[in-house]
Amino acid sequence: MCVAADFSKAISLIENLDEPWGIKDAESRHVYLNLAARRYTNTPKNFSVEGRHDIEFPTAWH
Questions:
Q1: Which string of DSSP letters, residue by residue, matches 27-45?
Q2: Which DSSP symbol is given to 23?
Q3: Percent of all residues in the chain with a pLDDT value above 90, rounded to a whole number
Q4: Quick one: DSSP state of residue 4?
Q5: Are strands 22-24 and 30-33 parallel, antiparallel or unpaired?
Q6: What is the Cα–Cα distance from 25 to 57, expressed in whole angstroms?
Q7: Terminus of the chain with fewer CB atoms < 10 Å: N or C?
């Protein structure tokens, strides 16, 4: 199941913003990060954030 589909309206609002925005579900799993958020968090472009907890990110901040 694609969790992002449940948040499609919110994603369409934030995907082109210059400010870093992300969406998490009720269990604190990531659903979406816009490009500005990926840059801010140093999250690789090819890393799928959907369904991941912070600890699973391949970054220093996790």
A1: TS-EEEE-HHHHHHHT--T
A2: E
A3: 77
A4: G
A5: antiparallel
A6: 16
A7: N
3-state secondary structure of 8: helix
10 vs 62: CA distance, rounded Å: 24
Q: Which two tokens stand for residue 55?
A: 């600890």
| pTM of the full structure | 0.82
Residues 23, 32 contacting (CB under 8 angstroms): yes
CA distance linking residue 26 with residue 35, whole number of Å = 22
Q: Give Cα separations from 43 to 1, 9, 11, 61 (angstroms).
A: 23, 23, 18, 10
Helix (H/G/I), strand (E/B), else coil: 24: strand
